[in-house]
User: Which sequence fits this backbone?
């Protein structure tokens, strides 16, 4: 009996990978073996950087809160310690937004914790 290779599924799999590789330079976008490697590596980076994005944003928020708190004579750790002690339920994202876009509101938070 002859071997069946299921060309329909093979073609679909290749098309899926080549679609993901679309827009890459040169053979990376249209040669199956090269595109397969490119897509695999790209998906690995995408997975890794979805995690890194969270880290980087938290770091950015901390820097912004620190800069704003220092204008009122407090360090970041002092400020966050007092915010938590007072039971103020604002996370770093919100505090950083207040510090950047609503300085009056941030000043009220600082006065509350002092």
Assistant:
């Amino acid at each position: 009996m002859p071997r069946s290779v299921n060309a329909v599924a093979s073609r679909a799999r290749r098309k899926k990978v080549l679609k993901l590789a679309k827009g890459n330079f040169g053979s990376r976008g249209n040669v199956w073996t090269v595109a397969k490697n490119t897509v695999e590596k790209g998906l690995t980076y995408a997975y890794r950087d979805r995690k890194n994005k969270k880290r980087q944003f938290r770091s950015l928020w901390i820097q912004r809160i620190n800069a704003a708190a220092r204008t009122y004579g407090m360090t970041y750790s002092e400020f966050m310690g007092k915010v938590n002690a007072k039971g103020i339920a604002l996370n770093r994202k919100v505090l950083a937004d207040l510090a950047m876009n609503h300085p009056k509101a941030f000043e009220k938070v600082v006065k509350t914790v002092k």
Q: What stands out?
A: The CA atoms of residues 31 and 71 lie 57 Å apart.
